[in-house]
Amino acid sequence: MELSFKNITKKYKSKQALTDINITLHEGVYALLGPNGAGKSTLMNILVGLIPATTGEVLLDGKNTVSLGADFRGLLGFLPQEPGFYPSFSGYDIMKYYADLKGVPDAQQRINELLELVNLASDKKRRVGQYSGGMKRRLGIAVALLNAPKILVMDEPSAGLDPEERIRLRNIISNIGFDRIVILATHIVSDVESIADECLLLKDGKLIASGTPDALKGKIAGKVWDVPCGQGDVRRYMADTPCTNIIKSDSGTCLHIVSDERPADSAVSAAPGLEDVYVYYFNERSR
Questions:
Q1: For 220, phi and psi rounded to 5 degrees?
Q2: Residue 193 and residue 54: Cα distance in Å, rounded?
Q3: In the list 11, 50, 196, 285, which could disulfide-bond 192, CB 3.0-4.6 Å?
Q4: In the chain, which residues have pLDDT < 70?
């Protein structure tokens, strides 16, 4: 299966939201990374057909997805950034409603399996209006998985989830990402570092870098530093260069800094992580 974005541009009056996006995806987990306002949600909404592109097209195995219509939509699972549910419905009722819309076979069994998967089985009879934000998010994940989609699109999937549920989500995605395309739009790097097969970096509506996590980390080798410093120097370093971590120990304080230039004579080159990649590309002070 091949999903391609060809010359996708989106313009809202005077605002250019996306500019000439060209991406080709196959089965696997893709992390679409970028700060708020980068164009991630716009690109996802174009993919699932909620908004049209100004120019360009999305192709599935060479066929225009708009022309494919219901055949393409039947392959999709989508978790929007702000899922909306009828507050008077129970969690089970919501699942049944969407299962009927999607024509899910053996719906009751599938619903119960998914509610168990997202840890909502014991709350399935509660009204959604009584759910916390994280519970609604988990319900949205279950809805997105109802039709066993071949293309799963999740916009900020971990928003509102506690640490245990974020781990559960990562495990779910890891287990299903082998035989389908999974796209995770997020600005939380820790959610995808261990599960993404490839990362796509979007800034100001433009694709600025892409590659496997290891390949992207390799591109900034020699630009990440551990700097031992006294307590009085911490603010000075942080004002001049982006710091991704402050490590405190009995021997003192060490700053993990991203910079093209060696920030101090005492700085020691460090192994980059994906969070360092994010800071390098999206924080102007690192360049």
A1: -110, 15
A2: 32
A3: 196
A4: 231-232, 284-287
